Amino acid sequence: MTVVNAAGTVAAAGAAPYLEVRGLVKTFGADRAVDDISFTVPKGKFLTLLGPSGCGKTTTLMSIAGLHRLDAGDIRVGGTVFTSVADGLFLPPEKRDIGMVFQSYAIWPHMTVAENVAYPLAIRKLDRAEIDARVDEVLRLVGLAAMAGKLATQLSGGQQQRAALARAIVFRPRLLLFDEPLSNLDLKLREQMRVELKRIQREVGITSVYVTHDQAEALVMSDEIIVMSKGRIEQRGGPHDIYARPLNRYVSNFIGVANLLEGRVARVTAPGRGELEIRAGGERIQLPCRLGEGVAEGAAAVLSVRPENVQAAREHRSGPRLEGEVIETIFLGNCVDCRVRWGGFEWKVLAHPRAALRPGERVYLHLDPEHSLAVQP
Amino acid sequence: MSERARGFVELDRLTKRFGPEVAVRELSLAVAPGEFVTLLGPSGCGKTTTLRCIAGLERPDGGEIRIDGTLVAAAASGLHLNPEERNIGMVFQSYAVWPHMTVFDNVAYGLRVRRTGRSETRRLTTRALELVGLGELAERYATRLSGGQRQRVALARAIVYQPQVVLFDEPLSNLDAKLREQMRVELIRLQREVGITSIYVTHDQAEALVMSDRVVVMDRGVIQQIGDARTIYARPANAFVANFIGVANLLAGRFLGRNGEGCEVEVPLGEGRQPLRLHAIGGAGAVPGQRVFLSVRPEDIALHLERPNRPAPANLIEGAVVDTVYLGASLDCRVSVGSHEVGVQLNHYAQLVPGQKVFLSFPPEHGLCLTE
Questions:
Q1: Using DSSP, how many helices (H) and how many strands (E) does chain A show?
Q2: Contacts for A241 with CB less than 8 Å, ≥ 6 apart
Q3: Is residue B227 part of a domain?
Q4: Cα atoms in the 13 Å half-sphere on the side-chain side of A184
Q5: Chain A residues with CB inside 8 Å of B202's CB?
Q6: Which residue among A202, A230, A249 closes a domain?
Q7: Candidate from A195, A240, A257 with C-beta closest to B325
Q8: What ipTM score was computed for the predicted complex, to two decimals?
Q9: Minimal Cα–Cα distance from A184 to chain B, Å?
Q10: Which residues lie closer than 8 Å to B286 by C-beta, 6 or more apart?
Q11: pTM for this structure?
Q12: Confidence band (pLDDT; 50, 70, 90) for B177?
């Protein structure tokens, strides 16, 4: 259970912070790439920094790695100070004991897989038997035991990324940092590797920070997600929190697909419940919905409804009469993506293939108030 | 084929070899005027080779190709029209849009090379740009376009000669996920508006389902099934198609026999466990005892936390949760059932823990018995 305050910083209740980032500021000239960010990660957990390019996620990651000098703030891991601008402390990157996995695999082509993986142990001067035992163990963990003697150039992209992961975890680092490690792989492999990476991280239990712009990746892999924009935190929460209860329009639009309509809160009916008036090109309607954090009576708000939570039917069943025209149906196999025009707005609706809706038909849209959310603009 | 199927584009027993390897084997297909047909399959299935034969970029080793009744390739007589003699437009994966030229010049280029007159070039180019919705951006440099806009330039360039057929070779595979989904919808709208006969190659089944009037599923140079998206999805002809289109749980078992409209399949669960007796549809031509697959889609399986009774569902299976993957709009859950692992897609959020006992069920009409 996490408690999020308005600024997006968190107190993770019940789990002591292991990685602590406080008041992080990093500027490049006049540009505040990271603008006062604070968060913590409990030991063994997987946190994802998610956002579009330029949101500050990679700068944050590089600051944890010690590859950037901060303008303000401090970073601690398990009580060790990595950086403290106020105290003038800076631990060099090589002393931070961090494993990193990048988009480019950074695997040495002239070495075998086993030699690549053994490298971090060799420079730490472990004895031969210990090195062999650990290399065996991690190669088995990442599913490359059979490839130990192969040259890195003989591996596929997915296998090279497994080797890079093995090399990052073999010396049992305090922290694992991932910088978009899957974005060079093709879609099917990427989907497979997401699940695989998460399984391995859970098994080794190393606290991890993962950077991506891919929201599906973030939902699948993370214990917690921080959604960023323009150097700031927009929202932090578990995957289901973020998906089902976005705080504002930006988060709702960035995670998954949503119908987003501008409106105004007409009235509050109960704590966290109310009615939102929405308009689109001449049409207007009042819909019962849940009120998100910071949405009050009379305030401008945005209705956020996921396509899977809208039902289109030829007859009106109950509730507000939201009537529109089907303009497009796109068969996706397990469902049909329907576009329904209402005023100037195109609703996205996921319908069951058996509903067999056709373009030109008039339909009523039924929104479940429990899954209709009024969020901050 | 004894009788030649009539079509705007016709392939008749097309065969293409590369050395000892047969890339396309006696493939016959008729594409109707204005139709959007997709060749779908894994890499190496022969889809791109087929497209390149239609374009005139490969010479077939067997069979014939006709476009609008005109023979453009015939292996027996050695007839082979060059690509530029076939009146075909092409759109590739790499947009091949020139950055130093304006949108207008990019699209007009092909006409100028063909020495089309000035006023005719202006008329045709303007028309093509309007069709793809780029009329306003004619004077913009290509470097200042978004990925989606470049894709439209590529399409405008393919249709500016007013070709009879447009061939697409995985044009969307370089785009990121959000843009790709958006472009799929735009491409179908465009194709419908222009009404041009289109043959589209992709390995992406979602793309094929979304865009096509008909899908041609290929594997190892041979057509596995031809049909509209719904038919291919709901009634795959064999285990390959079921597994390639969407996600299917394929449970290997034995055909027991017919049962009214449906059939029964026995699925062994490994040592020490009673085999499942499942009710399904399909299985045409199967005989009792024959090895078959029972195909059931993850979204067609219901998951129960308690044993459901009154009325007991037709196909009730006991299992244990292996793991779950949260995808936002859905939750994918793997459930172990004896020696099998069954994927279930839930469209609501549920807290499931590994090892938890659950019950699965599916109505017989969602289980499809397939022969190999």
A1: 8, 23
A2: none
A3: yes
A4: 14
A5: none
A6: A249
A7: A195
A8: 0.74
A9: 11
A10: B255, B263, B292, B369, B371
A11: 0.77
A12: low
